[in-house]
Structure formats: C-alpha cells, structure tokens
Amino acid sequence: MEFKWLLRELQRDPNDQDWVKGWGVYRNTPWHLACVYNSEAVAVSEAVRLGQGYAVSWGAHKLGTNQFIITEKS
C-alpha cells in the first residue's frame, strides 16, 4: 500500500521519517491493512464499507509496507 497523497495527509513520526501516524483500517485474520487516514470518521466509513472483520485504530504505519502498530493517540 503506497499512496503519494499519504505523505501530504498524514503526520510523519518525528522519531522515524519512514513512518506516518493516522487511523488505520485493518483486518487481523488474515492480516490486511486497507489504508491509513487522517480522519477517524473517514476510516470508520471505510471499515464499514469493507465489511465484517475490519477495525479502526490510531497507530503508526511504515511507508511502503503493510506494517501498522496500534498506539495511543497523543
């Protein structure tokens, strides 16, 4: 998952420029990171559209990968 707009819309992690922070839409089993958004409402809407098994959490996403780490929103 790599979207050029992702860099404009999401805040970079100040500790690691390869990571961005936002609302991840994902399914745990099997793992699928659908996208990361700057808006919780948009992320929830996308999770509903994708259907059963998709969840939304705040976290950090490593650009160019499907890695997403759930964190506390500060």
What is the compact description of this entry?
The protein has 74 residues and is α+β, with helices and mostly antiparallel strands. The chain has a domain at 20-68.
What does this protein look like?
This protein is an alpha+beta fold. The chain has a domain at 20-68. The protein has two helices and five strands. The protein has helices at residues 4-9, 40-50; strands spanning 11-13, 16-27, 32-37, 54-62, 68-70. Strands 1, 2, 3, 4 and 5 form a five-stranded antiparallel β-sheet that branches. The chain starts with a helix and ends with a strand. Residues 1-5 have low confidence and may be disordered.
Set out the fold topology.
Blueprint: H1 4-9, E1 11-13, E2 16-27, E3 32-37, H2 40-50, E4 54-62, E5 68-70
Antiparallel strand pairs: 1-2, 2-3, 2-4, 4-5
Please report the number of helical segments. 2
Tertiary shape:
globular
Radius of gyration, in angstroms, nearest whole number: 11 Å
User: Could you name the ranges where pLDDT drops below 50 across 5 or more consecutive residues?
Assistant: 1-5
The percent range for strand residues is: 35-45%
> Structural class, from helix and strand content?
alpha+beta
Q: Write down the secondary-structure element order.
A: HEEEHEE
Number of strands: 5
Oligomer: single chain
Helix content: 10-25%
Distance between the termini: 25 Å
Q: Mean pLDDT, as a whole number?
A: 88
Largest sheet: 5 strands, antiparallel
Task: For the structure shown, list the relevant keywords.
74 residues, alpha+beta, five-stranded antiparallel β-sheet, 2 helices, 23% helix, globular, disordered N terminus
